[in-house]
Design goal:
Layout (H helix, E strand, L loop, with lengths): L1 E9 L2 E7 L4 E6 L5 H11 L5 H4 L15 E8 L3 H9 L9 E9 L2 E6 L2 E3 L1 H11 E5 L9 H11 L1 H32 L2 H18 L5 H13 L1 H15 L7 H13 L6 H30 L4 H21 L3 H19 L1 H47 L6 E8 L10 E8 L7 E2 H4 L2 H15 L7 E5 L7 H17 L1 E5 L3 H4 L4 E10 L2 E8 L2 H11 L7 H18 L2
Parallel strand pairs: 3-13, 3-14, 8-12, 12-13
Antiparallel strand pairs: 1-2, 1-4, 4-5, 5-6, 6-7, 9-10, 10-11, 14-15
Helix pairs in contact: 3-4, 5-6, 6-14, 7-13, 8-12, 9-11, 10-11, 12-13, 13-14, 14-16, 16-17, 19-20
């Protein structure tokens, strides 16, 4: 759930912190008080674009005048395994009690997002946010008019039996698509078979004749460098040998031998000198070994011009093949395998195509099997979905509603989600045939249909916090009361935050907050605060449409709140 929201220097908000409760949290306020800024700030913290708060203005317009930056902070509390797994996937620290602290700092030209103190990208933040909260605004109801979304909604309703089948259909489709693509390419290649065969034979022969060995090119490069720098190396090694070896009277070997003779003459008088004697003997042995190694190394520097030519030519072969077929020897050898497979394919091309056709037929059979199972499950789910939707809609004051999620099957259709098309159909008046949703429903009706969907999907959705931004637009009277009852039902299983202008919905609040705008020293400031019982009744009275809070209007507010409590069983 969303525990708190802290906003500083964002748009009209100077600094405000609000703590949310479980159940139904209602936000009300005068038009223009800044309700959209409150929801917009939550969207901002969860990675949304600045336009969610300031429209099509510059990013800097969301920063309060004279402030250097804007800050939005959210605190969530969640112990869901999906959330913990996502935090681990994103390599973010997770508190033992499930606390998730999200912060977004907005500065001119850029913003910084953090989760539990770790900087994250906007994409990562949105991935996490999708598991924590869902925000539904007036414009979100328009998704109901998009027929492509209907199948997904039905599948979400029956996700417990459909999700596994959908994955099988998707895998089968991708396998089938890959095989068909391979077959198409093979047929196209067949028209140039002779040319392709000749090219494959040449390339495979060129690589095979080179007899490449992994690691040989690196040895050749090292040897070639050594040959090219032979004189410089020889001169340096000779100088080292002279400085170290016994052939030079002033060399290290003679110096150590002199020191060793001197210490042996006195080492019997002191045990410490015996230890030094031992070390000098070790040094003498090491220098002697080094002198021999230097002499041997100088011998290896001798090579003939023929050896140089062979090394150079062999290295050129490697470089030539790597330039043509891959950056490494492994890549060249891998390309050789591909060409050899192609040659094998061309050697019995008809057989290859015949085998490919068998694979395609088998893949089609597998796809049709899973897609048919998925279609049957969708049709079964649609029966229950239609029943629950009609009940939910009738409870939202659709008196004669007839809703149907129509599943249309076309077995000739191949797609990742099966061969079904789903479209929501509805009749709002008795005797009228069902028609597509976008041909019948008004804005207010769409809002209620969306709420009905959210009600029946409440048990399916794992997201703990739902925000409704004026989803009650376009309704009033008895319908508004029915909507408030549905909001109360949703509030029993989820944390709801709802902006409303309707007293019927406000009365159903478990926690009521008011958003107010004041002008102080010629500057407008928006604040949000929680109302006590008396203030809540006065706010409901204001929503009832009275300019002044009379005893009669207040009595109506008291009665409305009483009815709401009875509805919720308090």
């Amino acid at each position: 759930m969303l525990v708190s929201l802290h906003v500083k220097d964002l748009a009209l908000i100077e600094e405000n912190e609000v703590f949310w409760e479980n159940g139904l949290n209602i936000l009300t306020g005068e038009t223009g008080a800044g309700k959209s800024v409150i929801i917009g700030s939550i969207r901002l913290a969860l990675g949304a674009a600045m336009s969610s708060v300031v429209g099509n203005k510059k990013d800097t317009d969301c920063i309060r005048t004279n402030a250097s930056y804007a800050l939005v902070e959210l605190v969530f509390l969640s112990k869901r395994s999906e959330v913990r797994n996502k935090m681990e996937e994103l390599e973010l620290p997770m508190e033992e009690d499930g606390t998730i602290f999200i912060q977004r700092k907005i500065m001119p030209g850029r913003s910084v997002c953090k989760v539990n103190g770790e900087t994250v990208t906007g994409k990562q933040l949105k991935e996490l946010a999708s598991l924590l909260i869902a925000i539904h605004g007036q414009h979100d109801t328009q998704t109901l008019l998009n027929v492509r979304k209907h199948s997904g909604i039905l599948d979400d309703f029956a996700s417990d039996v459909i999700s596994v089948l959908k994955e099988k259909v998707k895998d089968a489709y991708r396998s089938l698509y890959s095989l068909k693509k391979e077959y198409k390419q093979a047929v196209e290649e067949n028209t140039q078979q002779e040319r392709n065969l000749a090219l494959a034979e040449f390339e495979a022969g060129e690589i095979a004749n080179a007899r490449l060995v992994v690691g040989e090119d690196e040895q050749l490069e090292e040897q070639y460098r050594k040959m090219n720098n032979n004189r410089r190396i020889a001169e340096a090694v000779s100088r080292i040998s002279q400085a170290v070896g016994s052939m030079n009277e002033s060399g290290a070997a003679n110096a150590v031998s002199f020191a060793l003779r001197e210490i042996k003459g006195v080492s019997s008088y002191d045990s410490q000198l015996l230890e030094m004697d031992e070390k000098l003997m070790q040094i003498e042995d090491m220098i002697s070994d080094l002198d021999r190694e230097l002499s041997s190394y100088l011998d290896t520097l001798e090579f003939s011009q023929e050896e140089y030519r062979i090394t150079e030519e062999r290295l050129n072969i490697y470089n030539h093949l790597k330039n043509k077929y891959g950056p490494t020897t492994q890549d060249v050898l891998r390309y050789l395998e591909e060409q050899q497979e192609k040659l094998e394919r061309y050697s019995d091309f008809d057989g290859y195509l015949s085998e490919l056709k068998k694979k395609i037929a088998k893949a089609e059979e597998e796809y049709n099997t899973y897609a048919s199972q998925l279609s049957n499950q969708r049709k079964k789910a649609a029966v229950l979905f239609n029943k629950e939707m009609n009940i939910a809609l009738s409870e939202l004051n659709f008196a004669n509603v007839d809703f149907e999620a129509m599943v249309k099957t076309d077995t000739a259709l191949y797609a990742e989600d099966g061969f079904d098309d789903v479209e929501f159909m509805i009749s709002l008046n008795p005797g009228e045939p069902r028609k597509p949703l976008n041909m019948v429903a008004s804005g207010g009706e769409l809002s209620r249909i969306m709420l009905a969907l959210k009600t029946i999907l409440a048990d399916k959705e794992q997201i703990e916090t739902l925000i409704f931004d004026e989803i009650d637009a376009g309704i009033s009277g008895r319908t508004a009361w029915k909507v408030s009852e549905k909001m109360a039902v949703l509030g029993k299983g989820h944390q709801l935050i709802c902006i409303t202008h309707l007293p019927q919905i406000a009365a159903m609040a478990d926690s009521h907050y008011v958003i107010e705008k004041t002008v102080d020293e010629n500057a407008a400031v928006t604040e949000i605060r929680r109302l006590d019982e008396k203030e809540e009744l006065n706010e409901i009275a204001r929503l009832l449409g009275s300019d002044s809070i009379t005893e009669t209007v207040l009595a109506n507010a008291v009665e409305l709140k009483k009815m709401a409590k009875e509805t919720k069983g308090y």
